[in-house]
Design goal:
The protein is of the alpha/beta class. It is built from three helices and four strands, in the order ββαβαβα. α1 packs parallel to α2. The model has no long low-confidence stretch (mean pLDDT 91).
């Protein structure tokens, strides 16, 4: 799901909760669509995620890879402390 916020200069991709593995390809497809529409940077809003798990880590990794392949950038925002810790452990960090 994309959201528009007049204060946000970049498109926002909202991650649903609960997040399951089957959601990841759909999120990547939406991200590719945003880049195909001219976006160079997309903000990925993680505020809805209530559970930090390996599915969320996989999602972040796949979205970053999708962005890189499209020549764009994806920024994560509103990640909970648990997800931030898991991303740090996985070497992905949060930007």
């Amino acid at each position: 799901m994309e959201a528009t916020d007049p204060a946000e200069p970049h498109p926002v991709l909202v991650v649903p909760d609960p997040l399951v593995l089957a959601d990841i390809p759909l999120l990547c497809e939406r991200l590719r669509g945003l880049y195909g529409g001219g976006a160079r940077e997309v903000v990925c809003d993680l505020a809805a995620l209530t559970r930090a798990d390996l599915v969320a880590v996989e999602m972040v990794a796949r979205l970053r890879l999708t962005a890189r392949r499209a020549g764009g950038r994806v920024r994560m925002r509103n990640a909970g402390a648990g997800l931030v810790a898991l991303l740090e452990l996985a070497g992905l960090g949060i930007d």
